[in-house]
Amino acid sequence: MARKVVRVVHESKIIKILADPVRREILRQLRHEPQTQTQLARKLNLTKPSVKHHLQLLSKSRLIRVARSKVESHGILQKYYETTSNLFIEDYEKTPLHLQKYFLQFHIERLRGILSVFQLVGKRRGEPIKVTSHELKELAQEIARQTVKVGKRYEKTEASLNRETLLIMIYSEALEEVMNKSEWKDFFDLIAPTASRMPKASSGD
Q: Alpha helices of the chain — where are they, by DSSP H?
């Protein structure tokens, strides 16, 4: 079965599983190539029982699956695991409150990168931008909601893009949706007058 491009995760129990740094690293490793429990334990410097525990949770949540099995020379069956999707997007509205801050930080860091580009453009125009921490947080929350909506458009598509290209595409579409919202018009008029006059995205697929 082909791997999906995107899976939007709505279940709070699975979102909690995704919040664990070790499991996120396991997913990152398995996105690149199928690997066994032993290989992961060696790469992550973890015990095999610890890796087995994480793999069981990820498998039960349908975040990973067995890509293939192979009987090695010593007769032990080795299972090679892979992710079921190139990208998992946590539904911000369904994320437990105590974890929203954790996931929001990812969006804040990405937005800082985007706003840094706007800052460079602004400085060249002689109009450096100013963004408060409160504005950045509110914008990150809006982006978090929009990435879920955009991600749903990709859910039924089979994997063909690498994760970074996919993430940039989804994030740019989400940002465009936010920029076209009336409540954010004044904000983007101030920091990126040209960008804020972008034509609205087509509602068609």
A: 12-18, 21-32, 37-44, 48-60, 97-124, 133-154, 163-179, 182-191
Contact 88, 63 (CB under 8 A): yes
The reported pLDDT for the residue numbered 193 is 58
Strands 77-83 and 64-71, bridge-based pairing: antiparallel
Residue 123 contacts residue 131 (beta carbons within 8 Å): no
162 backbone dihedrals φ, ψ, rounded to 5°: -75, 160
Q: Give the N- to C-terminal CA distance of the chain in Å, as an integer.
A: 25
Handedness of CA 94, 99, 100, 102 (dihedral sign): negative
| Dihedral, 42, 47, 50, 56 alpha carbons, nearest 10 | 50
The pTM score is: 0.84
Contact 176, 15 (CB under 8 A): no
135: left (phi over 0), alpha (psi -120 to 50) or beta: alpha
Whether the CA torsion 122, 124, 127, 129 is positive or negative: it is: positive
Ranges of each domain in the chain: 4-88, 91-197
What is the fold of 4-88? Answer: Arc Repressor Mutant, subunit A (1.10.10)
Q: CA of 113: how far to CAs of 89, 105, 169, in Å?
A: 19, 13, 15
Q: Residue 203: pLDDT band by 50, 70, 90 thresholds?
A: very low
Phi, psi of 145 (to 5 degrees): -70, -40
